[in-house]
Amino acid sequence: MDSDDDFMSAVSSEDDILPDDSDNDDLSGAEDFDFDDEPDPDLGMSKDIGRKRVAYDISFKVYQPADIQKQQDDLINEVNMILDISKEEAAILLRHFRWNKERLIEDYMDAPPQVLEAAGLAQEPTSLPRLEVKPGFVCDICCEEGPGLASFAIKCGHRYCVDCYRHYLSQKIKEEGEAARIQCPSDGCDLIVDARSLDLLVNPELKERYHELLNRTYVEDKDTLKWCPAPDCQNAIECGVKKKDLDKVVPTVSCLCAHRFCFGCILSDHQPAPCELVKKWLKKCADDSETANWISANTKECPKCNSTIEKNGGCNHMTCRKCKHEFCWMCMGLWSEHGTSWYSCNRFEEKSGTEARDAQAKSRVSLERYLHYYNRYANHEQSARLDKDIYTKTEKKMVQLQKESGMSWIEVQYLNSASQALQTCRQTLMWTYAFAFYLARNNLTEIFEDNQKDLEMAVEGLSEMFEKPVTELADPKLKVEIMDKTSYCNKRRIILLDDTAQNLADGRWTFNVELTGSAPTSGGPSNRR
Amino acid sequence: MASQKRIAKELADCTTHAPAGMSIALATDSDVHKWHVTLDGPAESIYSGGKFGLVVTLPPEYPFKAPVVTFATRIYHPNVTNDNVGSICLGLLKAENWKPASKLLSVLQAVRLLLVEPQPDDPLESRIADEYRRDRAEFDKNARAYVQRYAKGPVKFDGTNVGADAGAAGGSGKRSTG
Ligand SMILES: [Zn+2]
Ligand SMILES: [Zn+2]
Ligand SMILES: [Zn+2]
Ligand SMILES: [Zn+2]
Ligand SMILES: [Zn+2]
Ligand SMILES: [Zn+2]
After folding, report:
1. CA of A228, nearest ligand number
2. DSSP per-residue codes, A75-113
3. What segments bear the compositional bias annotation Acidic residues (chain A) (predicted)?
4. Measured in angstroms, how far is the CA atom of residue A267 from the centroid of ligand 4?
5. What are A127-162's pLDDT values in tens digits?
6. How far is CA A522 from CA A34, A226, A229, A268, A454, in A?
7. CB contact at 8 A, A57 and A51
8. Helix axes A275-287, A413-437, angle to 10 degrees
9. 3-state DSSP assignment of residue A126
10. A215 close to A244: Cβ distance less than 8 angstroms
11. ipTM value of the model?
12. Nearest listed ligand to the Cα of residue A379
């Protein structure tokens, strides 16, 4: 799943709160995220008086670069005052202790020399770093010597010429992305080059990069902080959900840049499936990519006349141009049977045991089962992509529509909302199929599939309206229908996610695979070696 | 070029203070960035009696970038790839450990030491590392067979005593990064 979320405008779809008219009567009011001082690690099961968030809602905060800088500065100043050491040393110590201020102060009070040494700080009193010209100096790196050769050394006294020192630092910063742990260039010396020494030696451009990298270590060192993975986004998210919680909650967070991602594994929002299942599923799909390839093809044959039909919109309701046969792109079944109580396109019907007695038959059934879910997963992924293309076209349509109908820009925004709802709901639907693949057959699963079916039907309905030509879109009646359908889709999605998250938190799901309970995180840049 | 002076000095140091059983020469007189090193299998090691060729390549950014050292002679060893490339896994040469003030003399000493004390916990050939840990007799036998087969007679650096087939005696183990 690529993060095709850039289309999302400031109006994000993060109004995931059940509207007042919902059937869950105690859910009410639009409540934004909890912007308290500390992220409270409650897993969305809070029972706040007067308001109840949906079960998958988690608390998090978004920090912009200036916030991140300030947090570090505050900590450095605090340690600088309490321990009576320079700010440079305070910064090195804090980084050494992965920004755990309490532990640093405690350990330092206990045994300052040991702490300083472990952090790569010598114990001599601080003197300002400066370049020096020493008589008889020979640079051990380039072997140059001569009168007037400027040299530099940090506290350990390992002295090198300025050119070599600069070259070394620039390589570490620029090529290796190193900052907090750049050691003295001497073989076997692990003293860290502090920020003040660095500022003295390198040019402004490198200096800026260096401090940027230092900021990164602050975020990377803290378990409660993660970078927003959206390209070019500099924000970080703070969230109290721990690794061990990931079998109980899917911590979807939403950045100020509108990118929605999972705090647990950094992938794009994959609700309702927990991280570990997502990992398993993606691995399975990668392993079985051959079988999967033909499915995600954009063309299929009409089940009636066999003429080739190309899918060019997100909608799964296909009409053969040649014979006018109407069918479902996913199951290739009659469309007329969809949207009725007979609808079971989303459900995999397990054949009775008699058929699957021998190993070969069993493996065929398990392949069929996988294909059923993969088919639908891939289809929604593809549809979301196609819906996005449609949206770019729709933007033009919106301009056209304004001209034709006399509607204002604000008045045509409903198409924008509809498009976003389609994207978000399809992304959810896509993961419901990965989730369902790992669900054991029981009552709870039936309810889940009913919710899935309701959402899917709503989405297909909206998708179909959305693809209407501009001339029809101008009809005020259709506008109202689209708006209603949009909010209905959003509501169905919330109901499904709320229900799934609640059961996940309560540990009520039965999976057909073993969950270890601690899904290893993927991604998350780290310079730690 | 700034690195010329440094390399010349190191070449002089290495030739005058060469580690036991090593001799060092430039691959061609015109290029100080490629060295040919001949190493006698250390007497205290299983490789005793063999003669091994090492190729030391200094990148243009040397000494800011680590040198690359490979075996020109096939060797049965957990930390050397069992192929005709002969890559070595040496902590000192990893980008994060290399320092511009690190010296080639210590690199050569480290390679020699690796023959005396293989590091099976940081292997390039996990199968050979496994064998080294679990069945030393079998490992010793295979290592000696390699010495007999590849490391006798004059050392060649032209790729003629690394063996043509990758799956020679002992087979090629599954490689892991190290
Ligand atoms: Zn120098
Ligand atoms: Zn030093
Ligand atoms: Zn962002
Ligand atoms: Zn996740
Ligand atoms: Zn047809
Ligand atoms: Zn269908």
Report:
1. 3
2. HHHHHHHHHT--HHHHHHHHHHTTT-HHHHHHHHHH-HH
3. 1-41
4. 6
5. 677 888 988 999 999 999 888 899 999 888 999 999
6. 27, 12, 12, 12, 32
7. no
8. 80
9. coil
10. no
11. 0.84
12. 6
Pull the structure tokens for residue B164: 């043509």
Structure tokens belonging to residue B131: 């064998």
Chains A, B: CB contacts within 8 A come to 43
- pLDDT for the residue numbered A38: 38
For residue B144, the model assigns a pLDDT of 95
Query: How near does any CA of chain A get to the CA of B98, in Å?
Result: 8
Report the C-alpha gap between A62 and A35 in whole angstroms.
Answer: 9
Partner B contacted by A183 (CB < 8 A) = yes
Q: What is the C-alpha to C-alpha distance for residues A185 and A183, in angstroms, rounded to an integer?
A: 6
Q: Is the overall model pTM greater than 0.90, yes or no?
A: no
pLDDT the model gives residue A350: 65
pLDDT at B66 over 70: yes
d(CA B166, CA B171): 8
Calpha distance B111→B89 (Å, rounded): 9
| Catalytically annotated residue among B37, B89, B107, B111 | B89
Of B5, B65, B95, the CB nearest to A142: B5
CATH superfamily membership of B2-152: Ubiquitin Conjugating Enzyme (3.10.110.10)
Q: Put the strands of the sheet holding A60-63 in their side by side order.
A: A60-63, A236-239, A225-227
Does residue B6 belong to the interface with chain A, where contact is any CB pair within 8 Å? yes
Residue B105 structure tokens: 């003399």
Phi first, then psi: give them for residue A335, nearest 5 degrees: -70, -30
Write out pLDDT tens, residues A303-349: 888 777 777 666 778 888 888 888 887 777 888 877 665 567 777 77
A374 closest CA partner among A363, A362, A382, A384: A382
